[in-house]
Amino acid sequence: MHRIQHTLIAALLCGCSLAIANPAPASQPDAPLPTIAALDLPRYMGTWYEIARYPNWFQKKCAGFSRADYSLKPDGRVQVINRCRLQNGETDIALGTGRQIGDATSPRLEVRFATAWLSFIPAVWGDYWIIDLDEGYQLVTVSEPRRKYLWILSRTPRVEPRAYDALLERLGRKGFDTGKLLVTRQE
C-alpha cells in the first residue's frame, strides 16, 4: 500500500506542463497558474532533491531524504524514480513514467505511477507543471493547476538562503501560502 502512495508522489514529482498564462496576483489564488515559458527537457533530466513541499497524504510516511531521478527513454518519455527514507530507515522507491504535453519546449508533463495497462485512464496521470526554474537549472518549483500540491526541488540537498527566500517571495505573488511548506529533512 505504501508503494502505491509513494508512486502517486512520484507521478506528481515527475511531469512537466506548460500553461502560458498571466501571473496570478497573490490575492487571487484561483487565477490561472503561470508556468515558465519554455523547458529544455534533456537539460532538466538528472537528480533533484526535495527541499520543501506542501503536506500531502502520499508522502506521509516519508521521514526525509526525498529525491527524484529523471531520465529520457528512447521513445521520448521520461523514466521517473522517486525515493524517500521511511521512519524505520528503509528507502521507499516508486517508479513512474512521464510524458511531455505540448511541443518540445513545453514545461508541462503528466506522470503516472500506475501500471502501463492503466495508462488509458486519464485519472492515473498527474499534472506536473514547472512554475519556477532558475537559468542554471539548479532550483525548480513544481505544482499543478489547482495549487493543491507544491514542491521545491534542487540539484543539491541544500539551497542558498537568499535564493530560497527570493523563491518564496515569487511563490507568494503566485497565490501560494508559503507558510504551509514542510522543509524536507536532509540529515
Strand content: 25-35%
**Helix fraction?**
10-25%
Radius of gyration: 15 Å
Q: What is the total number of structural domains?
A: 1
CATH architecture annotation = Beta Barrel
Task: Explain what you see.
By secondary structure, the chain is α+β, with helices and mostly antiparallel strands. It has one domain: Calycin beta-barrel core domain (Lipocalin, Beta Barrel). It is 16% helix and 34% strand. It has 3 helices and 9 strands. An 8-stranded antiparallel barrel has the order 1-2-3-4-5-6-7-8. The N terminus is likely disordered. Involved in the storage or transport of lipids necessary for membrane maintenance under stressful conditions. Displays a binding preference for lysophospholipids. This is Outer membrane lipoprotein Blc. Belongs to the calycin superfamily. Lipocalin family. Homodimer. GO terms for molecular function: lipid binding.
Quick recap of the structure?
The protein is an alpha+beta fold and 187 residues long.
List keywords for this structure.
187 residues, alpha+beta, Lipocalin, eight-stranded antiparallel β-barrel, 3 helices, disordered N terminus
List the helices and strands and how they pair.
Elements: H1 2-13, H2 41-44, E1 46-53, E2 62-72, E3 78-86, E4 91-100, E5 108-112, E6 125-133, E7 139-143, E8 150-154, H3 161-173, E9 182-183
Antiparallel strand pairs: 1-2, 1-8, 1-9, 2-3, 3-4, 4-5, 5-6, 6-7, 7-8
